[in-house]
Amino acid sequence: MPNACAICCEIVLAVLLPPLGVCLSHGCCTVEFLICLLLTCLGYLPGIIYALYIIVFANREEYFDEHRRPLYAPAYSG
């Protein structure tokens, strides 16, 4: 589980550039990232709303496998 500073940085990035915040929290080339990118292209506000929802409310534990881990997460040792 990321610490509070990492989540706050993701929220700030989600307001400034929504796909970047989603990319840091759930990884690149995921469905969440592509949806956020599409919503941001269609309208900036829907992209922000979706990015904040994904960062704050989505369950992060299901994304922590070796292929889909976020950039800041350490690799598994076992």
How would you portray this structure in words?
The chain is an all-alpha fold and about 80 residues long. It is built from four helices and no strands. The chain has helices at about 5-15, 20-25, 30-40, 45-55. The longest helix is centred in the middle third of the chain and has 14 residues, at about 45-55. The model has no long low-confidence stretch (mean pLDDT about 80).
Task: Indicate the radius of gyration in whole angstroms.
Answer: 12 Å
Q: How many E-type strands?
A: 0
What does the main sheet amount to? none
What kind of assembly state do the chains in view correspond to?
single chain
Give the end-to-end Cα distance, rounded to a whole number of Å: 17 Å
Supply the number of helical segments: 4
Query: What structural category arises from helix and sheet content?
Result: mainly alpha
Strand content: under 5%
- C-alpha geometry: globular
Uncertain regions spanning at least 5 consecutive residues: none
Helix and strand sequence = HHHH
Mean pLDDT across all residues, rounded? 80
Q: Helical content, roughly?
A: 55-70%
